[in-house]
Design goal:
Layout: H1 12-15, E1 21-22, H2 23-29, H3 35-43, E2 47-49, E3 52-53, E4 60-61, E5 67-69, E6 72-74, E7 81-86, H4 104-107, E8 125-132, H5 135-141, E9 149-156, H6 162-170, E10 172-174, E11 177-179, E12 183-186, E13 194-200, H7 204-213, E14 218-226, E15 229-230, E16 239-241, H8 244-254
Parallel strand pairs: 8-14
Antiparallel strand pairs: 1-4, 2-3, 2-5, 5-6, 7-8, 7-16, 9-13, 9-14, 10-11, 12-13, 14-15
C-alpha cells in the first residue's frame, strides 16, 4: 500500500513555529483509533496529509490540512455517535436531498450538521438506528461481511410455521445473492404471527424481501438490538450519545 504516493518526510524544526495538533492525536480525536495505534498506522504508510505520505512521528497538522487514513478523508471536527429509537412515520436514508420527516429532524436541535444513519429504514420500520459522521466506522459497519448482530421483532400478516423457519435459516436467494437468518423463534407470550429474528448485518429492507420470498408479508418490524446496543432507557422517538466504551466496542466489532 502506498506505492504510488510520494513520501513526505518532515522535520519538526520546520513546523515548530506553527500551531497545530500532532497527527496521532488528530486521528485519535477523530475516533479512528488510539494514539498508540495511530503511530503504528503512520509508520505503516496508511496516513497522508494533503496527498503526501507522512511517516515521521510527531508531525503536526494544521486545521486546513486534508488528512486521509487508508484513502478515506478524516474530518477535523469531533465525530458524533448517536443511538436513536426511531418512531414510525420517519425515514432514515443515507441519500441526500430534502426528505419530509427525516430522522435528521429528530436530532437537528442538537446536531444541525449532517449525521447520516447507518443503513436505511423506511417509514413503517421502528427501533434502534445508529447515526454517525465517522466515515471510516460507517464503511466498516456496512460491509456485507461485517458481523454486526441485529435482533428484530417481526409481526406478520399470517401465521408462520417451523418449516418456514428452516427455509430462512438455510438461506433465501435475492438477486443472485443468498441471505440467511441466524436465529428465529416465536415471541414468548405472543401469537404465531409474532417472531424474534437474529441476523448478522441485514437491513430491514432485505428482511422484508426474504419473508416475501416465502410468501409472508411483514405487518410490523422493530429493531430491538444493534450490535451490543439496546433500547434500555430510550423511549420511542428519543436519542442519546454513545459512551466512549460503546464507541470502542463498535470499532472492535467493525474490524
Amino acid at each position: 500500500m502506498g506505492q504510488n504516493r510520494k513520501k513526505y518526510s518532515y522535520r519538526s524544526t520546520n513546523i515548530s513555529d506553527k500551531k497545530g495538533i500532532r497527527l496521532n492525536k488528530f486521528l485519535s480525536n477523530a475516533g479512528i483509533c488510539s494514539r498508540r495505534e495511530a503511530d503504528q498506522f503512520i509508520v505503516m504508510g496508511l496516513v497522508t496529509v494533503n496527498g503526501k505520505l507522512v511517516t515521521e512521528m510527531g508531525f503536526q497538522v494544521q486545521r486546513s490540512d486534508e488528512v486521509r487514513y487508508d484513502g478515506q478523508i478524516v474530518k477535523n471536527s469531533p465525530p458524533v455517535y448517536i443511538l436513536l429509537n426511531k418512531p414510525k412515520g420517519f425515514v432514515a436514508t443515507k441519500q441526500g436531498g430534502n426528505i419530509k420527516k427525516s430522522v435528521q429532524d429528530l436530532i437537528r436541535t442538537a446536531h444541525p450538521e449532517k449525521v447520516p444513519p447507518i443503513g436505511d429504514m423506511g417509514r413503517t420500520i421502528t427501533g434502534l438506528l445508529f447515526l454517525t459522521n465517522d466515515d471510516i466506522l460507517r464503511k466498516r459497519l456496512t460491509q456485507f461481511q461485517s458481523k454486526v448482530k441485529m435482533i428484530y421483532k417481526v409481526t406478520l400478516e399470517k401465521k408462520i410455521y417451523v418449516t418456514d423457519f428452516e427455509k430462512l435459516r438455510k438461506g433465501v436467494l435475492l438477486q443472485k445473492k443468498a441471505y440467511s437468518i441466524k436465529k428465529i423463534d416465536y415471541v414468548i407470550g405472543g401469537t404465531k404471527k409474532e417472531i424474534g429474528v437474529e441476523v448478522d448485518n441485514l437491513t430491514p429492507a432485505v428482511l422484508v424481501k426474504m419473508f416475501e420470498k416465502i410468501n409472508h408479508k411483514v405487518f410490523f418490524m422493530d429493531r430491538v438490538m444493534y450490535a451490543s446496543l439496546t433500547k434500555k432507557d430510550l423511549p420511542r422517538g428519543r436519542w442519546r450519545n454513545l459512551s466512549e466504551r460503546e464507541i470502542q466496542l463498535l470499532h472492535l466489532i467493525a474490524h
